């Protein structure tokens, strides 16, 4: 049974008749099931969910990519034009026999298992290979390589439980990837299929959509604000440069680790694309926590006594000014992360944003006061005449 809330009328209704049911990841053609939705009044209290039957030769969830219903999200469609005219026999998702021991597990065996898992985890490689073969083979997902890869994928999914790795044979290793997979470090070809066409259409309009720009030397020249210079900031430049170098290195390592492209994405939490080893849903909290930890550490650096200065309290505003200067001044552009393919990061001084805001407010107030004094002198001059 399928019960759904309509997007326009906001009315609940029961879906009846033929429906397509599938779950991601969906690699084998038999993972897409055509089922019959029925009306069961006893289940009306359940909305926007699928209720599968308990009876039958095989559980329907198991037919859908071997699902075990543990947090799985299903795709359900009742559009007649999208219902396949024929069904493919679902794949057998019986897991490989587990490796059993005749004794209690030792710490050394746990360590060996962990290393073995890290070395043999091939889930992403198999999924990418399946996408590439499905694009290039005339039979698409029905092709022999894709069917073989679907079976290997099932073994790889169960690998953490069974300890049996999925071994990818040489003939299933991808030599060229379609352009829409965006693998600049690998040989690629122009995909002539629908996904390839859509990909290039999007790429054509992408530069004009106001997307994130890198901080270039020219942008640095235009952005630098002389108002942020405070008397004595030169005394803190050396320390500021040192801490900025550390900050950029740590931030760059975070970006590389999670496979995130821009500083703006990781700071805002609005990640557009990341490494396939991570997911936005699962890893957004650890990412945000790592960023908060880095900013907190930067503030502890700020509170440390500056080196090479005479005794006495630090000028926190001159120090904040130095942090701003080594970040935004054009002469420091490209001085950090040398030899690494990384952008010039600009978030460093904003770890002490309150000090920067104070500096700007003071300069603006001083300018307004000076302007007011000039206006008074101007009007006094007019009255004298």
Automatic annotation (TrEMBL):
Location of the RDRP core domain: 8-202
Pfam families hit by this protein: RdRP, RdRP_head
Enzyme class: transferase
Sorted UniProt keywords: Nucleotidyltransferase, RNA-binding, RNA-directed RNA polymerase, RNA-mediated gene silencing, Transferase
Enzyme Commission code(s) on record: 2.7.7.48
Keyword RNA-binding among record annotations: yes
Domain RDRP C-terminal head: 223-365
MF (Gene Ontology): RNA binding; RNA-directed RNA polymerase activity
Summary of the function given for this chain in its UniProt record: Probably involved in the RNA silencing pathway and required for the generation of small interfering RNAs (siRNAs).
Record-stated family: Belongs to the RdRP family.
Protein name: RNA-dependent RNA polymerase
Highest classification ranks of the organism: Eukaryota, Viridiplantae, Streptophyta, Embryophyta, Tracheophyta
């Amino acid at each position: 049974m399928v019960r759904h809330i309509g997007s326009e009328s906001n009315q609940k209704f029961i879906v009846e008749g033929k429906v397509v049911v599938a779950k991601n990841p969906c690699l084998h053609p038999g993972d897409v099931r055509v089922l019959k939705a029925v009306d069961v009044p006893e289940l009306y209290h359940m909305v926007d969910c699928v209720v599968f039957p308990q009876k039958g030769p095989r559980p329907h969830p198991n037919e859908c990519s071997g699902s075990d219903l543990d947090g799985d999200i299903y795709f359900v469609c009742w559009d007649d034009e999208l219902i396949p005219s024929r069904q493919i026999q679902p794949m057998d998702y019986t897991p490989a026999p587990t490796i059993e021991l005749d004794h209690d597990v030792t710490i050394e065996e746990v360590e060996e298992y962990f290393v073995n898992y890290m070395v043999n985890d091939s889930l992403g490689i198999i999924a990418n290979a399946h996408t590439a073969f499905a694009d290039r083979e005339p039979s698409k997902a029905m092709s022999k390589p894709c069917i073989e890869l679907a079976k290997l994928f099932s073994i790889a999914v169960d690998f953490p439980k069974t300890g049996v790795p999925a071994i990818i044979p040489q003939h299933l290793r991808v030599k060229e990837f379609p352009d829409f997979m965006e693998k600049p470090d690998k040989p690629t070809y122009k995909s002539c299929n629908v996904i390839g066409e859509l990909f290039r259409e999007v790429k054509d309009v992408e530069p004009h959509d106001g997307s994130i720009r890198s901080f270039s030397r020219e942008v640095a020249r235009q952005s630098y604000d002389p108002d942020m210079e405070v008397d004595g900031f030169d005394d803190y430049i050396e320390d500021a440069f040192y801490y900025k170098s550390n900050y950029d290195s740590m931030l760059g390592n975070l970006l590389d680790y999670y496979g995130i492209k821009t500083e703006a994405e990781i700071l805002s939490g609005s990640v557009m694309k990341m490494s396939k080893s991570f997911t936005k849903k699962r890893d957004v909290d650890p990412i945000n926590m790592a960023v908060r930890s880095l900013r907190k550490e930067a503030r502890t650096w700020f509170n440390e006594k500056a080196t090479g200065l005479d005794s006495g309290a630090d000028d926190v505003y001159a120090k904040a000014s130095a942090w701003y200067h080594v970040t935004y001044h054009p002469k420091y552009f490209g001085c950090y992360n040398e030899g690494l393919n990384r952008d010039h990061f600009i978030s460093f001084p904003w770890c002490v944003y309150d000090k920067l805001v104070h500096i700007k407010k003071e300069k603006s107030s001083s300018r307004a006061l000076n302007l007011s004094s000039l206006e008074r002198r101007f009007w006094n001059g007019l009255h004298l005449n």
